[in-house]
Specification:
Blueprint: H1 5-18, E1 32-37, E2 40-46, H2 55-63, E3 71-76, H3 88-94, E4 99-104, H4 114-121, E5 125-128, H5 132-138, H6 140-148, E6 152-159, E7 164-167, H7 178-189, E8 193-197, H8 198-204, E9 221-225, H9 236-239, E10 246-250, H10 265-277, E11 281-284, H11 290-298, E12 304-309, H12 311-319, E13 325-330, E14 339-341, E15 353-361, E16 364-371
Parallel strand pairs: 3-4, 4-5, 6-12, 6-13, 8-9, 8-12, 9-10, 10-11
Antiparallel strand pairs: 1-2, 1-3, 7-14, 13-16, 15-16
Length: 378
């Protein structure tokens, strides 16, 4: 059967549904599934919080007997392997679904193509690649961790009219207005982790949590690049580490350079022990080599990372070619003397990024740029 506008309409709805639980399904992707019979949705679901149960089994259970002869729209190829739960492909077969429409095939080697093959062997018609670009965008974090062994990295910058991201010695400076800041809170809520450098952590004393009403429980893991373990015990990050996880990435043991102060190992050990006693996790991994750090985060099941500051940290990830998406907020406010120059503006976006859209939040403009997702390791 050829793809119809109805197929695209239902898949678009499944993709929108899949975004409900972004950042909240542990190592599993947030997948949307609709069961449609005679043009009517009879079952719908998104991967449950924590990653189980999967979207297909929930949607099938809601549809019940109406699933027989129906069409299932799934944003990611149904799993075919026995893990902690039976394969979703088996469930679709058992319920008697007549057709399955898939947006994105799963790069997981345990699944890749096998789910589609299992369905076809059971006599179920399968069409794949429907709204694939949109599906890949919604699954970007999962696909990146699967194919590149690292989290999907978003760099967020808020830049003043005179090209600054802050002011020296002023702590946090409000550049964007409340509408844009609310949008950033929503971005944090669908991201696994958020990262800043130690300079930002000390100068701004940020919380890096989600503070939008009703979304507080969706705060990401907070990560600080801190080669000398300089994060103050009085900081708000340390003070809330038992409520929302904090990871401090410090230099590998025995690798501190003269420029970093040659902190004695006994003093470093004392700082590490004190931070850990406060609930902070200390990880020894060169903080200035993101090509090493990102795979280490992926092994912890972190699929998405939001880089929020500051200028040095942004340049670090850009120089390494490890930014997948740029969110560039431009505000009419002027910082003036003592401003910290932005590492990026709309006139010097790195090659390889495509402009994917512009939105206005009050007087602030958001431009988004994205690299194309590739299916092979870097």
């Amino acid at each position: 059967m050829s793809i119809t506008p109805h197929d695209e309409r239902f898949m678009a709805a499944a993709i929108r549904l899949s975004r409900w639980h972004l950042g909240r399904t542990a190592t599993n992707p947030s997948v949307g599934c609709l069961i449609v019979k005679d043009g009517v949705i009879v079952g719908r679901a998104v991967t449950a919080l924590g990653g189980r149960p999967h979207a297909e089994t929930q949607a099938l259970a809601e549809a019940g007997a109406l699933a027989r002869g129906a069409t299932a729209y799934v944003t990611l190829e149904p799993c075919s392997h026995h893990g902690k739960t039976p394969p979703c492909a088996e469930a679709l077969i058992a319920y008697g679904v007549a057709r399955v429409v898939v947006s994105v095939t799963d790069p997981d080697p345990r699944v890749s193509g096998r789910g589609v093959a299992m369905l076809r062997e059971a006599g179920i018609e399968v069409d794949a690649g429907v709204l694939e670009a949109e599906g890949r965008q919604s699954l970007a974090a999962y696909l990146t961790r699967q194919t590149k062994n690292r989290p999907y990295v978003t760099l967020k910058l808020a830049v003043s009219a005179d090209g600054m991201i802050g002011r020296q010695g002023a702590g946090q400076v409000a550049i964007t207005g409340p509408e844009a800041r609310a949008q950033v809170q929503a971005l944090r809520a669908e991201t696994d982790s958020i990262l800043v450098g130690i300079g930002t952590a000390i100068a701004d004393d940020p919380l890096l949590t989600v503070r939008s009403p009703g979304l507080e429980s969706q705060s990401p893991i907070r990560i600080v690049l801190d080669p000398s373990l300089a994060l103050p015990l009085t900081s708000r990050l340390v003070g809330t580490a038992r409520e929302v996880p904090v990871i401090v990435v410090t230099s590998e043991e025995g690798s501190l350079s003269q420029a970093e102060g040659d902190i004695a190992s006994t003093e470093m050990e004392s700082r590490r022990a004190t931070l850990e006693a406060a609930g902070v996790e200390v990880v020894h991994c060169n903080p200035y080599h993101p090509e090493v750090l990102l795979p280490a985060l992926a092994t912890r099941g972190i699929s998405s990372l939001l880089v929020e500051g500051g200028a040095k940290t942004a340049r670090l990830f850009l120089a390494a070619g490890l930014v997948d998406r740029i969110q560039l907020y431009q505000a009419p406010v002027v910082i003036g003397e003592g401003g910290i120059e932005s590492p990026l503006d709309a006139t010097d976006i790195p090659s390889g990024f495509a402009h994917t859209g512009t939105l206005m939040f009050g007087g602030d403009r958001l431009d988004e740029y994205e690299r194309g997702l590739r299916c092979s390791p870097e």
